[in-house]
Amino acid sequence: MSAMTLTPIEKKPLSFALPTICAAGGFAGLFVGTAHGSGLIGVVVGAVVLMVLGYIALQILGPGMERPVRWGIIALFTVAGVLLAGVPGFVLGGLFGWFFAFFVYWIGEGRYRANLAPYLTGGQVLWHYAFRVICGAIFVFLITPILVVMPLSFNAQNFFTFTPEMLRFDPAGYSLKHYQDFFTSSGWQQALRNSLAIAPVATLLSVSFGTLAAIGLSSEHVPFRRAIMAILISPMIVPLIISAAGMYFFYSRIGLQGTYFGVVLAHAALGIPFVIITVTATLVGFDRSLTRAAASMGANPVTTFFRVQMPLILPGVISGGLFAFITSFDEVVVVLFVGSANQQTLPWRMFTGLREQISPTILAVATILVGISVLLLITLEMLRRRSERLRGMSPG
Amino acid sequence: MKLTKTLLATTALTVAAGVSATAQEMANSMTVVSWGGAYQNSQLKAYVEPYLAANPGVSVTWDESSAEAVAKMRAMNEAGNVTWDLVDAVASDAMRLCDEGLAMEIDHDEVLAAAPDGTPASEDFGQLIVSDCFIPQIVYSTTFGYRPDMLPAGTEPPDSVCDVFDLETYPGKRALQKRPIDNMEWALYCDGVDKDDIYDVLSTDEGVSRALAKLSTIKDQVVWWSAGAETPQLLADGEVFMGSTFNGRLFSAIAEQNQPIEMMWDMQSFDLDGWVVPTGLPADRLARVMDFLMFATDTQRLADQAAYISYGPARASSAPLVGKHAELGIEMAPHMPTDPANATNPHIYDYEWWADNRDDLDAKFQAWLAQ
Amino acid sequence: MSDTTDTGPVLAADGTPLKRSLRRALRAQKMRALALIAPLLIFVLVAFIAPIADMLFRSVENQIVGNTIPMTVEELRDWDGADVPDEQVFRAMFFDLFLAAEAKEHTKLGSRLNYEQSGMSSLFRTTGRRVDNMGKVFQNAFKEISPQFDDAQFWFDMMSGGAGAEGNARLISNQIGRLERLEATTFSGDVGFVPGAAISDILPNTARAYAAFAAFTHFVNEDVVSEKKPWEAVHAALAVDLEEPATAAALAAYDGPGADALRQAAAAELPPIDMKAAFVDANKDWSRIEYWQVIKTYSPPYTTGYFLNAVDMEKTTQGVALRSDDERIYGLLFKRTMFMSLMITFSCIVLGYPVAWILANLPARKANLLMILVLLPFWTSLLVRTSAWKVMLQQQGVINDVLVWLGLVADESRLVMINNQFGTIVAMTHILLPFMILPMYSVMQTIPPAYLRAAKSLGATNWTAFWRVYFPQSVPGIGAGSILVFILAIGYYITPEIVGGTTGTFISNRIAYHISTSLNWGLAAALGSILLAVVLILYWAYDKIVGIDNVKLGG
């Protein structure tokens, strides 16, 4: 996107750049200051330091010296960080330095205008960036909890707590023992095997039935369409605790409680709405004349389905399948009720782990699973792009 | 000691001989239900691993469902499909299971080994056999742990359960179990009710209000827990100053995890945990369970368990055999809830009374909590 | 079609009228569509809808009382409730309770009634232990009169009326049926005993009690009836029969097996039968009218009791009334569940809208990368995210640590952000946010950016352009996301359990508690039914407003 420049960038007057940089410095200084006793001193020091740095960088040395100045600023902040707060200060100082090194030139050289329409007023530009910051904060909100548990999975102790050693980045505070526990404990490995035995079969069931039903539902002349749809979507809507309790009693009665098949059935039922939703969504965009064309050329319905319909709705099927898989793979309430010892899945073990013996092994497992999720998401994204190519849409 | 060993060796031989003679009729797998965590691990080490070593070809599956044992056994029984062979349950659950006919009545002298000196099992377990279906394993207690480093400077460490209610001397949060049992009794005790009168007072509406009123004085400082692992975590985090939990959890946090926590044993609430056998087992599975029970509840095995967790063995004859911790090598006896130094003022909780009043008090307690 | 009027119906290629041909094709298409849907529909109906219907049925089911103490229920029907029931009722209770205690079913009934009145549980349990003794008196008395009464075979012959006697098959099948209901199973096969018709007429109670004993011995204990001595209850029944003056007269003319012994017994002095005294002696609570009222109130096979309890009401002698203040909890919990779900939905809208907007307005490649940030939490284990929030929010947690480190909060006054409503709302907002963003995003994608530019070029300010042009078009997305989030939120269980403390828990937590701890499954089902009703109404609204087909999950 850097190639796209809407507005020619031009150097901003110091009367604008310096106060802005100065304010930012003061703001950052406030935090450092309060952390060390006095917020006011922090504000003043921050503002002065940034103003001086900004003046040197923009006015004395100029844009020609940008690269060395940037490194200089980073080094300066890192050293200051180490002096103030040791190892964590080193990291934070580096980050602050990197940001201000960028910020000074971004403001001073007017680069912030580059991607915006030239007619925007100053207020609009400010709002544009404020909005981005707000969105960024929301993304941070979304992702921080997941990032926070990752270092905890390397905790050398058996608690969910950042120990002082960890905060000092002392290697003694870290260990791989929880990963080792996961890979060597027969309980966890059995749970992994169970999860891998249950989720794919449940997914297969919900995908095969779900896809057929979605194709049936997409035809124009289905009687009681809404009612049928309502029933098929209901597993997503009914509170899990009700589903779990109902299945528990009913499956007990028909001898499915505590069996592998029972858990698979229950999970398949929970995954169905996702398949129905995603496949019907792909079918909405499906050009019906394609099947008619295939039929008019003599293909029977089965051939038409596999050669014409299937390739086009495949992304929907796969994405529905992934949702169904994750539903089963991450499901804990229903399996706790419907399953028994021989069907302990990963979430089951995590749940009992949280209840009976808090151990960061759970976090180690989570970290591994997050890694797998990222891989799956990337796969999904690739598939989506492929489908757009197939349909002849340009990938934006 | 030598005598014991010889006797044990003979017992082991007899057991082994018995197995080889009847191996034909015994199922080769067993589903054992327990609590998970360190407790289950102690059972694995002390009972199951030695048993499996003596009986190759037998496999044991663990189900960590003891917390829902009654609900699940009731559902299994309704369906006529019992998949569990042996269930670890607390005494009150065992009584409930026995009452409902979900657990099998046991003739303790017939199916359990006598003590090494020949005392029959029913005498060796004594009063701990609180129900005909119940085979006691351990005595545990719900007691308090606190963080000495969070004490206000110059304050004596807490030594009475009433210090839990004393927010002035001991500021900070407390962790209490999210149920009326124990909490109501402690509240009344600290409100000046005589220990022997607690249940009489609690039987009246005024008594319940009085207990809740006492609890109300600390309500906004309480973190309510429902799983055994929570209090040690809260104490380790410094989230609470003191909290109630099972004494074995505290021992594990203090001795095995080296957390800065101390024990406070005043008014510790004794409880029992043990085995029950579900009704309706097929003969071959039942034979296997009985064989295992005979082995797993003998004097030495119960004493062995104490090497892994600080719960008192239920047999009187096991107490002298309690030795050192399996890994840490510290003496375990002083960490037992039954140790005379710890059991100076225990609270004996009334199973019968709670069986009757639990639903009613729970409704009131939950309504009080939610307000 | 106007041009077809004069040439007759249009014909298809095979000569049938086009209209019919089309109709047939349409029907075939319908059938094919239904055939495609059928497997899944049947699957969902069996694996999902049936279990839920089955569970909801428990909220009104109350057959346990009638099945466990059928005769007592019968006798109580005419009881006016003003005074402690008479001896007749206590006798019925004795025979009912004896069989129930043998089958170990009486404590289940006790637990059931204890939900309505505390103390019932121990009433049944303690009395169940004493019923043997209540009958023992009569057993000993009969043994005294004639040692024959201590003989299993003698009893068997006496009650079957001897070989070749006319049998009363209905009586035994009635008792088998009763036992089946009591044990909730079915038995098949022959008991090996049929009570004699003549002796059943003379000794109706004894015959019934012996038949029950025979059925139990054969089916439950799997023993041979003629080898087992009858229960104490059978002796008590005989005493009850002999108490009737008419019995002695009838016995005088009877000549079946055991007639002599019976005549001897009828002539002898028997201990007085006072079951009322015996019950009150076993547990003085049997003389409490309110206990009997509870039994009577809850004797019908179906009850509204659980639903009343679920809305903080109870049945009293004066009809339905609110529970006392200190027991009202469900109304509060329902209100709280609603309030918190609304807060969560609202927070999700506030946080989800900007994100959905930026995703919809960024170039696709960047948007898809950011989309991963939205989907990643969505795909991370719920348990892990919840524990992560615990680590973040607690007083010694990450957020408080950072705030203290920055000096914004003093170390002594760390913020309380967990184990209360705030904790639940934050954690659940995080967990449900993707469910808000995804539908919003799919709606916003369809809004052409040109509209905003057009509005601005016509002189609208930024705000006006957004508020008057863009926002109204994005409302369907907000609606879809809100209802989805709200529906999912009110059913949540795990997260409030872990971070909710006492004030941040939902009604689902109570449902789970009643299922696995208090075992009051009827109440759990009633609470579940109410919750489900709320969800279904919302679901219906969702369908009306958005249409179920329009739910989208990403792209």
Order of helices and strands of chain A: HHHHHHHHHHHHHHH
Structural class of chain B: alpha/beta
User: Uncertain runs of chain A with pLDDT below 50, 5 residues or more?
Assistant: none
Mean pLDDT of chain A: 84
Look up the CATH topology of the largest domain in chain A.
Answer: MetI-like fold
Taken in chain order, the helices and strands of chain B follow as HEHEHEHHHEEHHHEHEHEHHEEH
Task: Give a verbal description of the structure.
The complex is a heterotrimer of chains A (396), B (371) and C (555). By secondary structure, chain A is an all-alpha fold. Chain A has 15 helices and no strands. Chain A has two domains: 1-119, no CATH class; 186-393, MetI-like (MetI-like fold, Orthogonal Bundle), CATH 1.10.3720.10. Chain A has helices at residues 14-35, 39-61, 66-108, 122-152, 164-167, 177-184, 186-218, 225-237, 240-253, 260-284, 289-296, 301-329, 333-338, 346-356, 361-391. Chain B has helices at 2-22, 37-54, 69-79, 91-99, 108-111, 121-125, 183-190, 198-202, 205-216, 230-237, 247-256, 283-296, 299-305, 351-370, and strands at residues 29-33, 59-63, 86-90, 135-146, 174-177, 222-225, 242-246, 262-276, 312-313, 347-348. Chain B has two domains: 5-139 and 272-321, 3-Layer(aba) Sandwich (D-Maltodextrin-Binding Protein, domain 2); 142-270 and 340-370, D-Maltodextrin-Binding Protein, domain 2, CATH 3.40.190.10. Chain B is α/β, with parallel strands linked by helices and 371 residues long. In chain B, strands 1, 2, 3, 4, 5, 6, 7, 8, 9 and 10 form a ten-stranded mixed sheet that branches. Chain C has 555 residues and is mainly α. Chain C folds into three domains: 18-58; 70-296, no CATH class; 330-550, Orthogonal Bundle (MetI-like fold). Chains in contact: A-B, A-C, B-C. Chains A and C meet through α1, α4, α7, α8 and α9 of A and α1, α17, α18, α19 and α20 of C.
Helix-strand layout with pairing:
The complex is a heterotrimer of chains A (396), B (371) and C (555).
Chain A: H1 14-35, H2 39-61, H3 66-108, H4 122-152, H5 164-167, H6 177-184, H7 186-218, H8 225-237, H9 240-253, H10 260-284, H11 289-296, H12 301-329, H13 333-338, H14 346-356, H15 361-391
Chain B: H1 2-22, E1 29-33, H2 37-54, E2 59-63, H3 69-79, E3 86-90, H4 91-99, H5 108-111, H6 121-125, E4 135-146, E5 174-177, H7 183-190, H8 198-202, H9 205-216, E6 222-225, H10 230-237, E7 242-246, H11 247-256, E8 262-276, H12 283-296, H13 299-305, E9 312-313, E10 347-348, H14 351-370
Parallel strand pairs in B: 1-2, 1-3, 5-6, 5-7, 8-10
Antiparallel strand pairs in B: 3-8, 4-7, 4-8, 4-9
Chain C: H1 18-57, H2 63-68, H3 70-76, H4 87-102, H5 106-114, H6 120-145, H7 152-160, H8 169-183, H9 197-202, H10 204-219, H11 232-243, H12 245-252, H13 259-267, H14 275-282, H15 289-297, H16 305-310, E1 313-316, E2 319-322, H17 330-361, H18 364-379, H19 382-393, H20 398-406, H21 421-444, H22 450-457, H23 462-490, H24 494-499, H25 507-516, H26 521-545
Helix pairs in contact in C: 3-4, 4-6, 5-6, 6-11, 6-14, 8-10, 10-11, 12-13, 17-18, 17-21, 17-23, 18-21, 19-21, 21-23, 22-23, 23-26, 25-26
